[in-house]
Write a structure and sequence with these properties.
The chain is built from three helices and 24 strands. It has about 350 residues and is mainly beta. A hairpin with a 4-residue loop joins β19 and β20. The longest helix has 7 residues. The chain is globular.
Amino acid sequence: MTRWNPNAYGRKSLREMVGDMSQLAAARPVRLTDGADDGVSAVDFHNSSGLEFTVLPSRGLDISAARFCGMSLAWRSPMGDRHPAYFEPAGLGWLRTFPGGLLTTCGYTYMGPPVRDGDADLGLHGRASSLPAASVRCDARWVGDEYIVSVSGKVREAVLFGDCLEMERRIWCRLGEPAIHIEDQVTNIGFQPAPLMLLYHMNWGFPVVQPGSRLELPAGSVEPRDAEAADGFDRWSTFEAPTPGFREKVYYHQPEPDAAGMVEARLVNPQGLGVAISYPQAALPCLTEWKQMGQGAYTVGVEPGTAFVSGRPAERAAGRVPMLEPGESRSLSLAVSVLEV
């Protein structure tokens, strides 16, 4: 059957044929009530394209489950969408509440492995995904001939006598388009310069990830993070079956942007189902690939960021930790599109 395109009918006809536009596209606030997810606020999206996804205001406006025509796009961890009250900031405690999902934000002032930076002990990947959003607003409206559905809010990482960053995030989609748009603005609301380390930890899973799936990137440089990743470096772009005892392999990419300054990374399975991530290279110059082929932990992370995941001291020494002056803002954006090749 040919895929239905609601936009072919036009704004006037669509309005005449429905009692409420939520019949075709909506962002519906809900609250989770079971187990460790109890109390998590969520927003369920649909837009008549076959794409459905869930945004979690309780978890920094990250994106958990995502499906296309009933098929999962994202890998989900055994922990589910745990309430941020269970967050453990020290060491590897971040892994105890890591939901996987389409997007887990890492940052805002540090990310990467646990490390000591001066007098501070920094845990894995920072606090961003454990910080509830405020001023959350769901919206759905016509903008010209396009029907736009969105959720927005503010997330603040702050400490008395220390760094104070606030992120304004807007996630939106168009009626009939299988794509998610993410727009962030991070502002230093404090009175001293603050580091900005931000990673869009996107976690793709079965059936997008399966034996024979491939990662397609523009020309550019790629290097293994360590000896573990160097073993199998020639296979960084292809993916095997779930493997007992598999140890993660991490690769650092710096793809060349197109004439408009954009980078597009594609992950496609043997049947032609895939996802594309596009973003401005100037704002997110570092692309990390997380290849994890373990049993149950079977996922590929395609992760644009302001830095790589070597830890704040190492990234600062490499000149990859930008500083925000008091009152300064930095805008970042990316789009995720479903592919049917």
